[in-house]
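Researcher: Going back to the complex we discussed earlier. I've cleaned up the inputs and rechecked each line, so this should be the final set. Can you rerun the prediction on the complete assembly and write out the structure?
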Amino acid sequence: MRLIVPQISVGKYAAALFKERFNKKKNLVLALPTGETAVEMYAGFVKMHKNGDVSFKNIKSFNLDEYVGVEACHPQSYCSFMQNNLYNHVDIKKENIFMPDGTAEDIEKECLDYERKIKNAGGIDLLFGGVGQNGHLGFNEPYSALRSRTHKVFLTKNTIAANSRFFTPPQTPPDTAITMGVGTILDANEIVILASGFKKAEALRAAVEGPVCAKWVISALQIHPKAVIVADAAACSNLEPATFEYFKNLKDEYSEIEKLCL
Ligand code: GLP
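Model: Rerun complete. Updated structure for the full complex:
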């Protein structure tokens, strides 16, 4: 697993990495996240699209997760988040946008169908994600099976509290969601996880320095052949200085991507 702490912002770095990968493959199959950390990355995607540098017309996109019981058009649904931050501003085809349907009558079937759709698309080339304060990927909460597939999850109190900032009281986030499983995520060819702020520092320490364990789901990235965490200095504040130095001085394709933006 690679950690990169770019001099540019985490979102700008992620957008540059996307452009790099797009230049090599125009019909990428993406997996995309929601969350505040991803907003700047999407702004970067939109800017690159408006400049004519990238086109989404042959891109397929699968979202990592969605709340159960929330209509797609609800302002706090992840579907609305994606429309507002990305899909409404780029040339992606409607039929190439895939989101789990949290209002499906048969959630178990919906999860199986989602897995099938990913498979039919040829699998995920490039997966972007955020990380929860408790180390969750998508909505795979602590103690999720590390080989799980798309499934329904019960959110922890901490996650509900962390995500309640997007809901106007007295509304609160639902306590269940559909998420790609950890195994689904690990099947992607390349995984790019974004982390910013001190709130993510403990999760980042567990991800980079801890053992692979279900308590910190993000630690599963350690067994993936091409996983990178893009983090700011605050998110790295719990790392041992030697760990930080090691990754900071590493010269490889990920450090080259940063150079394109400096
Ligand atoms: C939610 C999403 C996660 C995301 C996390 C991080 O919990 N389900 O997929 O990683 O938010 O959000 P933020 O970037 O707002 O901290």
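Model: Worth noting: Residues 10-24 form the longest helix (15 residues).
Researcher: Good, that matches what I expected from the previous run.
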